[in-house]
Amino acid sequence: EQLGFDSFITDFGVGGCTNFLDGVNYGSSGAGILDETGSLSGELFTMNIQLYNHKITVSRIGKQLGSDEVAKKYLSQCIYVTDMGHNDYLNNYFLDIPTTAARCMPSNTLQHPNELDDNSCAYKLNEDIQIFNTKLQTLIRELDGKYEDAAFTYINSYEIDSDKTNEAFKFTRESCCNVMASGGVPCKSLTIPCANRSEYVYWDGAHFTEAKAWNFGKRAYKRQSSRDAYPYDISELVQLKLHDNDGDIVNHAQL
């Protein structure tokens, strides 16, 4: 909404998606960077499958716009968002151990009630995810310096999902709906969720409420500190003027 969209981006393959020019969502719940991640969650689209689906989108846009060259120009104006990696930790290597800012998720605090820090968050392997985040930021800097026809940025979800950010919410460790006492993620069937969901950070055992997601999105769009996004927040990213392979200037604000 902050970028000016008046509706959600269409999911790839849903309802015979044809409106590719307004954006496509390839997201798949439980998926990760590695093909094996999420194998216990049932059928899903891994990152490799999502990249393959994007190739299909590129081909269809080429046909829709009349040529691959025109499509290439159009696609160079787009923003590409990748939100992958947490499932590779939570649902793969550290399946039974809480990690990342996810250490504060209800599903993890319920699983490890005797392993909580002063903030009532499960603390194990927090150092591991910080190592990952640091190396990811280094990679972003390398990519941003290597390709002049593209701009890369890192949205620091760990920093944004901090206790300070959550001060606006009354319930920061509990879920709005009832989940399994052993630390489940989905809401229990046939249960009534909380009526005051805007006061909760978590909807279920792992996912944000709309109020928290909106709060998160605002800081990703317009950072409140230099640690929220590096080197650009989203509002800055869309205003960048880059040179494409033909030497033409491309304004990424033209979505």
TrEMBL record:
Location of this chain's protein in the cell: Secreted
Source organism: Salix viminalis (Common osier)
An MF annotation (GO) of this entry: hydrolase activity, acting on ester bonds
Gene3D superfamilies xref list: SGNH hydrolase
GO biological process terms, semicolon-separated: lipid catabolic process
Lineage: Eukaryota, Viridiplantae, Streptophyta, Embryophyta, Tracheophyta
Alphabetical UniProt keywords: Hydrolase, Lipid degradation, Lipid metabolism, Secreted, Signal
Keyword Lipid metabolism listed: yes
PANTHER family listed in its UniProt record: GDSL-LIKE LIPASE/ACYLHYDROLASE-RELATED, SGNH HYDROLASE-TYPE ESTERASE DOMAIN-CONTAINING PROTEIN
Transmembrane segments: none
A cellular component term, taken from the record's GO annotations: extracellular region
Similarity field: Belongs to the 'GDSL' lipolytic enzyme family.
Protein name: GDSL esterase/lipase
Ribosomal protein recorded as keyword: no
